[in-house]
Amino acid sequence: MEHHHDHSHHHHHHVSDLKRINQAFYVGIGANALYTLIEFVVGIRINSLALISDASHNLSDVATLIISLLGMKLAQKGATSLYTYGYKKASILASFVNAVILCLIVIKIGIESIERFSNPPQMLGSMIMITALIGVFINGVSAFLFYKGQKDDINIKGAFLHLLVDALVSFGVIVSGIIISFTGWNIIDPIISFVIAFVILFSTWSLLKESVKLILDGVPQQISNENIQQILENHPNIASVHHIHIWALSSSENALTAHLVLKEGVSLETFMEVKKELKHELFHQGIQHATLEIDCLSVTCDDTSCQCQHK
Prior knowledge:
Blueprint: H1 2-45, H2 49-75, H3 90-118, H4 126-146, H5 154-183, H6 188-215, H7 225-233, E1 238-248, E2 254-262, H8 268-283, E3 289-294
Parallel strand pairs: 2-3
Antiparallel strand pairs: 1-2
Helix pairs in contact: 1-2, 1-4, 2-3, 2-5, 3-5, 3-6, 4-5, 5-6
């Protein structure tokens, strides 16, 4: 009874977190779409190529937020006869797409920075700096909305990093503008761009690595294979554990299968209780779906129809 309470309590928090993340996506998409429109209008009116190109970049960010949202929505869809796990892995695929896009942005910033070294830009206009300041605010606030969720979900982390990158780029434009205004040192613009590109690459590399690992059914980052094996083996009714497989069903749900060898004299009835206890423990270790198979070398089986595996 107490176990049931814990699980429903966790589920309640999961639903409220999901609602909060949904709202964060809608706010982020809406705010960034509006900012993109403002940048396009201002860029065309003052004939600023910098603002128009930055607006194009922001438009791609709106697209990546939509990709993350779609990934999350698909992950919540039910199973079908063809997709027996549902579309849960869509959220992992979305994080991988976002990581690739971020890497492409790094390459783009790097190329632009090299070009600016040979031809440094003229002093940045006050209108560009004001628009960049709005960008820092919008992207900073949007990123903050994803801050809590990105710790446990790499799909949300992808959205968070995109917004943070945008805020960084806009901040770089402001810093460049101020330094150039006071010193006339135009070379600072490509230098700051290189620093931003390095920061993005450093943040994105772990996202790219983790999303590729999860696509290939590797053990999720927050789960220790050794720790899980120890939890199973430490149970007083378990003799040994083998064939442990842990993988991610989605960017926020994990699964496990394991073969358990019971100690001498443990009945199947007792095993059902053992299984219940272990599943509860695994749930609190971040494994929501556990399949525990019995290799009953020494189990006492009263039912003659019971087929035990002898290995």
